[in-house]
Write a structure and sequence with these properties.
28% helix; 10 helices; 473 residues; 18 strands; single chain; alpha/beta
């Protein structure tokens, strides 16, 4: 299927109205149509057997923990489609250093999973999950977004409205249980997927009347989905609330919170309120999920792009104080502001990778154990700013790009269970480098756009501008 906009393609089928001749024929038609979930909704190409297990082996792994490590999220275009040689190249690339891989249920490459109530279309989702498994990744599913009929739209395989405004609507409260039932169907279809995130960034959960997040509504949906998934299998691991940890200028006091502050900014009080409500009223959670950027809502990187990443450490530690022992995931994290087209391609790749490395270091120092890089994959072309691999449209596509080296190596060296240790840095190098280490490896980042001679962990070495260097211990 072709890809456009937010979706991965929509079947253009139409149910032709049958014109009966005579009262007997008309009565027969009405009887048949009355048995359909929606007499005007096309179910062409769908199946009522949505919970039929897809893929082999089907059995879940014997033991799975809530910490999955450092990986990436598939977006609209990914390596499950394209030239067969390029797709295979990416599968082998990822298989060399397996990482967790996250995929949304609807949108970002996946079709409407239930265009008519009780009728399912998982073809695109099946393909994504198959790719994740073929490339050795740990699959994670973000349960967002919702079919149109759950949010006031029309049912039918040809009725999905893929506009961003519509995609980001939350289910109507009357359909919260329907969405929980869909989540259970997904869990039954993919029994080897053990980690589920409930919804995405509170999309659609804004209370206009009160000028704040509808955290009561989100928490109700979360609890119903949590209950439905645990009913399928108590071993399934569920997390939320996937809030965007917005921050404002550090000088601003109105609408800000004193709970988390720093030179990078002050947390938005509405976010703090939403998180605290969910944390208090959640039915349960196996891990906590948030996302956010190092820069403020006004795209300010304070005191600079590297210093701004300290926000990740401060926010992570605050969350840990609220939730105790629950592992912390960052479902998305951004260190480079987007332009008016929501693209991030204004920096050189070395600059981008260096700040990204600093951001990952800050997350780890804050206690995050799992995080997902939002892979901005292009559908076509030779270059791709910030991407993990080259687009797979051509036979020579799919080759590794610099960001892949950072993310995959970080997961390999500092995956779940890592015990970080101290590392010495020469006094005159402290302002210029970011470092993190365990017993076996040290990651060093030059934050300057010029060469330096650095002494880290007792070793003296040269670094190019914005260089990211790994040392063995």
């Amino acid at each position: 299927m072709g890809r456009h906009g937010w979706n991965s393609g929509v079947r253009r089928w139409r149910l032709i109205a049958l014109l009966g001749v005579g009262m007997a024929a008309l009565a027969l038609v009405l009887t048949v149509l009355s048995t359909l979930p929606d007499s005007k909704a096309s179910t062409a190409g769908t199946s009522p057997d949505g919970d039929k297990v897809h893929g082999t082996p089907a059995d879940p792994p014997p033991q799975v923990g809530p910490e999955v490590g450092w990986g990436f999220t598939h977006t609209q275009h990914s390596a499950d489609e394209g030239s067969s040689s390029a797709v295979t190249r990416v599968e082998k690339l990822l298989g060399g250093r397996p990482m967790p891989q996250n995929q949304a249920l609807m949108g970002w490459g996946a079709d409407n999973p239930e265009p008519v109530k009780g009728h399912y279309d998982f073809d695109a989702m099946d393909r994504r999950i198959d790719f994740i498994r073929a490339s050795g990744g740990t699959p994670v599913i973000t349960l967002c977004c919702a079919p149109d009929w759950m949010k006031g739209g029309k049912a039918g395989v040809d009725k999905t409205n893929w506009s961003r405004q519509n995609l980001e609507k939350a289910p109507d409260p009357d359909h919260f249980q329907d969405y929980a039932n869909l989540a259970a169907t997904v869990a039954k279809r993919y029994p080897y997927v053990r980690h589920f995130i409930v919804w995405n960034e509170f999309k659609g959960f804004w209370n206009d009347g009160k000028g704040r997040w509808d955290y009561e509504g989100y928490t109700k949906l979360y609890n119903l989905v949590h209950q439905a998934l645990k009913k399928v299998d108590k071993g399934i691991l569920v997390g939320g609330p996937y809030l965007v940890m917005d921050s404002l200028d550090p000088k601003q006091t109105e609408g800000t919170s004193d709970a988390v502050t720093g030179p990078w900014g002050r947390m938005d009080q509405r976010i703090v309120d939403a998180f605290e409500y969910w944390n208090k009223h959640k039915a349960g959670a196996d891990f906590v999920v948030v996302d956010g950027s190092s820069y403020t809502n006004d795209d300010e990187m304070l005191p600079d792009e590297f210093g701004a990443t300290d926000k990740f450490t401060a926010v992570s530690r605050w969350i840990e104080r609220q939730t105790g022992d629950l592992p912390l995931w960052w479902a998305e994290y951004y260190v480079e502001p987007a332009d008016s087209r929501d693209e991030r391609d204004g920096w050189s790749e070395s600059h981008r990778v260096a700040v990204q490395a600093a951001g990952m270091i800050a997350l780890a120092k804050g206690g995050a154990t799992s995080a997902f890089y939002w892979n901005p994959e292009d559908e076509k072309g030779r270059s791709c700013a910030g991407c993990l691999w080259r687009p797979t449209d051509s036979a020579d596509g799919g080759g590794a790009l610099p960001m892949y080296g950072l993310v995959s190596r970080f997961n390999e060296e500092f995956g779940p269970g890592t015990k970080f240790t101290s590392v010495s840095v020469a006094a005159d190098d402290v302002p210029n480098v970011r470092v993190i280490a365990d017993d076996e490896a040290v990651l060093v980042v030059n934050t300057l756009n010029r060469p330096i001679s650095a002494k880290v962990d007792g070793k003296r070495f040269e670094m190019q501008g914005y260089e990211v260097k790994w040392l063995k211990r």
